[in-house]
Amino acid sequence: MVRQDKTIAYLDGIRGVAALGVFLNHFSLAFYPAWNTLKPELSHLDGLEIAYTHSILSFLNSGTFYVSVFFVLSGYVLSHKYFSSNDVEALISGLFRRFLRLFMPITFVIILSYILLMSHLYFNDPVSQISMSNWFSNLWHIGNPTRLLFENILYGSSLFVGVASFDTCLWTMSWEFYGSLFVFTFLLFTHFTKRFQLPMLLLPMVYFFIMKQPLYEDMLLGMTLFYIEQKVKNSGGIVTNLLAIVLLPLSLALASVPFVGPLPGTWQEAVKNNIWDYTPWCAGVTAYFLVVVFVLSPFLQRIANLKPLAFLGYISFSLYLLHPILIGSFGSWLFLKVYDGSNYNESVLISFVAMIPVLIVCSWLMAKYVDQFGIRFAKKVYGIVRNATP
What is the rounded (10 degree) CA torsion for 194, 196, 200, 201? Predict the structure, then answer.
């Protein structure tokens, strides 16, 4: 979705890259499990996957990192309009519209996944036997798909409790939903004590840290970015550019530190032993550093505003929701077709290259006709209720 607030339109470009990173993560989990498990017996590239995991380049498909980027961005964007205008109406409107805005695209992908499942168009089981991916083999095994479909539609179980049986990405939706409601509610109840909003934000941050709920903490971190944005406007460009130069490589380097322990002797092992062990909140701090870099740097903002990245941002939510479905259906089907007459890695490459345009076109169609419709519909319903309320 391209935002009306042009001052933060560059965030769409970051969101688009993050969605692409999550796609790369899941594609790698399906076809190259050794990069994640670090088990040489699962390698299809003579151990190159493990060497890649131990390199700084592994930030490219660090799924946990990119999910945290999404949540930091959400906290920033959801609070930005209120901070900029001091208008409580933005909070009330956001609270009212959030359910419909998320429910409609989620319901669409659940119905699509159900149709593919009932039509036997998921091919992850035969592919996982070849790729040796336990993660891929565990997807789309649903005891009663029709019952679960109606539970999702009637009770919103994916949105309220994060049921992800039809689409593995849906586990984040309940975090996004409740986190959004918390952001709006917190700002609403602290509206008349605005001078103390930032210090008061420390209380829920400490609580979510203690309760080990890192994605909520990511959203709260995102809320603080408005204050950084205001400081940047009043400070010299040299200082902010220097900070950006330091934080960007630091963020990407830390994003490459995997959950699984690296082999002894790697630089990542030294990071884990001497600086931090990779706990879930570390991904949020790393993602926060990355977004801060863009807040600080007008040059990077211009890059993120380039048309290809802006388009990727427009389709990012749809791409995020659709890509597991396409990997399990079209991507897996094509791999099996090609694998009969080719070697493994060539078959994976052909499947990957063919998937990219299909994924982009399908995401664009969903963004235009489903996601945007949901946004407009939620606004219309809110307008009707608001006008009818004394």
Answer: 60
**Span 284-293, pLDDT tens digits:** 889 999 999 9
Q: Using one digit for the tens of pLDDT, what is the confidence trace for 282-332?
A: 888 899 999 999 998 888 888 999 999 999 999 999 999 999 999 999 999
**Proportion of the chain above pLDDT 90, given as a percent:** 63
| Residue recorded with tokens 């939903």 | 177
Domain-located, residue 1 = no
CB 149 within 8 A of CB 114: yes
Q: What own/partner pairs with CB < 8 Å and gap ≥ 24 does 362-367 have?
A: 362/318, 362/322, 362/326, 363/315, 363/318, 363/319, 363/322, 364/314, 364/315, 364/318, 366/105, 366/108, 366/109, 366/315, 366/318, 366/321, 366/322, 367/1, 367/314, 367/315, 367/317, 367/318
Q: What letter would DSSP give residue 261? A: P
DSSP output for 38-62 = --GGG-SSTTHHHHHHTSGGGGGG-
Residues contacting residue 192 through CB under 8 Å, at least 6 positions apart: none
- Which one-letter DSSP state was computed for residue 279? -
**What's the chain's average pLDDT?**
89
Q: Looking at the domain assignment, is residue 285 inside a domain?
A: yes
Position 53 in a domain? yes
Instruction: Give the C-alpha distances (Å, rounded to integers) separating 278 from 104, 207, 275, 281, 331.
Output: 35, 20, 10, 8, 32
Q: Domains in the chain: how many in total?
A: 1
What single-letter DSSP state applies at residue 121?
Answer: -
Tell me, yes or no, whether 156 lies in a domain.
yes
Note down the domain range covering 165.
6-388
Rounded Cα distance between 204 and 202, Å, is 6
Among 149, 127, 147, CA closest to 137:
127
Task: Name residue, tokens 């388009």.
Answer: 311
Residue 122 main-chain phi, psi, to 5 deg: -95, 130
The answer to whether the beta carbons of residues 270 and 203 sit under 8 Å apart is no
Q: Are 181 and 102 within 8 A, CB to CB?
A: no
**Contacts of residue 343, Cβ cutoff 8 Å, sequence gap at least 6:** none
